[in-house]
Design goal:
This protein is α/β, with parallel strands linked by helices and 124 residues long. The chain is 21% helix and 31% strand. The protein has a single domain (29-121), classed as MTH938-like (Hypothetical Protein Mth938, Chain: A). The termini are far apart.
Amino acid sequence: MKFHEIHSDKINLIRAYDEQSVTVHEKKITSSAILFPDNIIDNLHYKSIDDLFSSNLDEVFKYDPEIVLIGMHDNKHNLTQEQIALFNKRNVSVELMSLPAGCRTFNILISEQRKAVLIILLSL
């Protein structure tokens, strides 16, 4: 199998991440955000997975993703049954993982042209 590195200004490949930020292209994101392959919604006031409920996931569900990744530094939490049901009723897979794993997985999925979304939960 041949691998090709993707260089594109049209898809939101994550270039770097650390404890306080995620860098997409040249944009440094320092607050919670939602990354789509071609769009970023940033400056969100999400502090934890408890802030994820139906009304503030409208943009995510409008995109009709295959998978939603939730990346956070403190991934010792779990989604509630109600949150899981939100994704299940739309046939959307959801994965809660560390921020580094979420960033790497998002890059792989969008490089494969999959309809993936990454919700970044940075501590405020």
